[in-house]
Amino acid sequence: MLAALGATVVWAWQGGALAQMAGHGHGLHQHGAGGMMGHDMANMPGLRGLDATPEESAELAVMFQNFTAITRTVENLPDGIRTVTASEDPQVMEALISHVAGMIGRVEQGRDPQIFIQSPTLDIFFARGDRLNTSIEITEAGVVVIQTTDDPELVAALHTHAAEVTAMVDRGMAAVHEMMARRVQ
Asked: Does the pLDDT at position 125 exceed 70?
């Protein structure tokens, strides 16, 4: 099934733009026992967005709840990035494929999902998505995405966002909280 979906995704989204997850920062915490602030890992309200479907938010939840099951490599190119993201867990891999394909489509359409925890790094992708050249392929190694552009600001944003996503793969929601805290300072 993944091979067939991969061929469809490559065909459908070639030449598009990739935007992956990250944040604005509302509704991330709830009061827990003893009045302590705790992360709501059951409902994950920060994964909702002003223009995100429940299915998109659910995909993000699968990825964040299973971040330790995801692997990722990034190669910064002079004109963009090459990333390989994978999971041996079929449910997580399905969420990864759907998320990547869906976000590519959103960037092509200029439809920012405005996920509450979304990184402002994504703003440039939605504003200049037509300047990105994207190829995506599903291989045995995982979801391979290559994005290039002749726009130096987009190249810088691709490098930054790739690092943000890798931090989330490495540390899950803790990485999101760190990024959001740095933005508030």
From this structure: yes
Q: How far apart are CA 57 and CA 177, in angstroms?
A: 18
50: burial class by Cβ within 10 Å (0-12, 13-18, 19+)?
A: exposed
C-alpha angle 105-107-112 in degrees, rounded to nearest 5: 110
Q: Report DSSP state, residue 14.
A: T
CB of 49 closer than 8 Å to CB of 113: yes
Enumerate long-range contacts of 157-162, CB under 8 Å, 24 or more apart. Answer: 157/121, 157/124, 157/125, 158/80, 158/81, 159/76, 159/81, 160/121, 161/19, 161/20, 161/22, 161/119, 161/121, 161/122, 161/125, 162/74, 162/76, 162/81, 162/83
pLDDT range class, residue 136, cuts 50, 70, 90: very high
pTM: 0.73
List beta partners, residue 81: 76, 147
Rounded CA gap, 123 and 55, in Å? 22
Q: What's the rounded Cα separation, in Å, for the pair 113 and 184? A: 22
Task: Give the residue with greater pLDDT, 111 vs 129.
Answer: 129
For 10-52, the pLDDT digits (tens) are: 333 333 323 333 333 333 333 333 333 444 554 554 566 556 7
What gap in Å lies between CA 59 and CA 121, rounded to an integer?
Answer: 20
